[in-house]
Design a protein that fits this description.
The structure holds two protein chains of two kinds. Chain A is an alpha/beta fold. In chain A, 34% of the residues lie in helices and 14% in strands. The chains are: A alpha/beta, B alpha/beta.
């Protein structure tokens, strides 16, 4: 009896399209990934419902870590001369006696959290080794010696007339209120009253008034 | 598996008897290790990709004024004072602080419950709103702003104009507490709020409540 011959099918599937897509995704992620700059201190920001984007340029970032230490950093990738202006300003006003090499090292310094007395030592350390240094934080809590006032003053002069210049305050959720208050008072002393607090995005609670405002449609006329 | 097939077998030339047959090597390359590595890299990049970029919260602080005439006028009954203490404790009182025998408006709350307190107070202020007593110019500005936003209830936008929240973070409150309460202002659309230092008497009440 002639038996029905079942044609033998190969179990080998052609995986080429699959692999193609996989590598396409891989290349996308490689290009889209932006590595975080190395941060000397870990900051966990509290959440807020606002989804406003954080500026990356033309800003001064004041960081408060979990042990209430205050750090100062300048975000000005486009115009590197601002770094020089700020550090020169501080150098002259506080008589720090920095060498030109130390002044130019300020550009690479991601975060500065030392009293004026320690600036020279910090800036004489190569930028890559600075993360290992234990920075004591800028003194702010003593109202008579709030050194942040000088740093903000220097930044204010350097960025004078720049449009969209912002003060960012990035505080760790566990830091205590007095440190934040001292930062704000330093800003106030420099006649600056608008700040941006860095937060991570939280969900908007359902049914709240804020949620309603998000759904408004512009009036059609 | 994934492989390049170039038709390696079949179709060789006929060779003479003395000619040694060259060993046939398959041109199929095993791509499995490469694909493995590819997926490993995908996994790595998927995990390291920072999708949640930080956002910002605007904060406008008032200028310190010593001149009492320039200070913001506040209707006392429409004020809600929120005190932030250690260990996520929140206290609040409506209107002026009254702690006498038989009368105590100094209450304790939590970060979850405070939203309802704010909403209740806001509704109360809205209910007691009296158009004839309100500043007409400020009211008009408020309405126009609401109109611009596209608020369908813009006519009522002025009702909570008197409502004011005073936030008083104590020295033991954390930064997170401060941001949380500021966020609460955004969530409940509180238009007027201020951050003020805790008064001595209030601090005493907090310590008395917390017992240390």
């Amino acid at each position: 009896m002639p038996s029905v011959k079942i044609p033998r099918k190969s179990t080998d599937t052609d995986m080429t399209p699959f692999v193609d897509i996989a590598f396409l995704i891989l290349s996308f992620f490689i290009m889209a990934t932006k590595f975080k700059p190395p941060e000397p201190v870990e900051i966990t920001t509290p959440g807020s419902v606002l989804s406003q984007k954080l500026p990356e340029n033309n800003a001064v970032l004041i960081t408060i870590d979990s042990s209430n230490k205050v750090y100062f950093s300048v975000l000005s990738e486009k115009d590197k001369s601002k770094y020089d202006e700020i550090i020169n300003d501080i150098n002259t006003s506080q008589n720090l006696g920095l060498t030109p090499a130390e002044i130019s090292n300020f550009k690479q310094t991601y975060m500065l959290g030392v009293p004026f007395g320690g600036v020279k030592q910090l800036l004489s350390t190569p930028a890559n080794d600075q993360a290992k240094l234990k920075q004591p934080g800028i003194p702010v809590l003593d109202t008579t010696n709030n050194q942040l006032i000088w740093w903000i003053g220097a930044a204010k002069r350097a960025f004078a007339g720049q449009k969209g210049f912002k003060y960012l305050i990035k505080g760790d959720g566990l830091s205590k209120y007095p440190a934040f208050e001292a930062v704000v008072s330093a800003l106030k002393k420099n006649e600056e009253f608008k700040y941006n607090l860095v937060t991570s995005l939280d969900d908007v609670p359902g049914g709240s008034e804020f949620e309603k405002t998000q759904t408004f449609k512009p009036e059609s006329k | 598996m994934a492989s390049i097939d170039s038709g390696g077998d079949g179709g060789g030339h006929k060779k003479g008897p003395g000619v040694k047959k060259a060993k046939k090597l398959s041109t199929r390359v095993d791509m499995t290790p490469m694909v493995d590595l590819g997926f490993l890299l995908i996994t790595f990049f998927v995990f390291t990709a920072t999708m949640s970029s930080p956002t910002t919260l605007d904060l406008n602080m008032p200028k310190d004024v010593d001149d009492p005439l320039k200070k913001t006028e506040v209707k006392e009954s429409a004020v809600l004072t929120i005190l932030l203490s250690k260990d996520n404790h929140v206290y609040y009182y409506e209107g002026p602080l009254e702690v006498t025998e038989g009368k105590n408006n100094f209450k304790s709350s939590t970060y979850k419950e405070i939203r309802q307190v704010i909403i209740n107070k806001k509704n109360e202020v809205k209910k007691n709103f009296d158009e004839s007593k309100a500043d007409p110019k400020a009211c008009e500005d408020e309405r126009n702003a609401a109109k611009k936003r596209g608020d369908p209830n813009w006519e009522k936008a002025c009702q909570d104009i008197d409502f004011m929240v005073i936030i008083k973070p104590s020295d033991k409150a954390t930064y997170k507490n401060t941001v949380d309460i500021l966020d609460e202002m955004t969530i409940n659309q509180v238009k007027r709020y201020a951050m003020v230092k805790v008064l001595k008497e209030e601090m005493e009440l907090i310590t008395a409540t917390e017992g240390n």
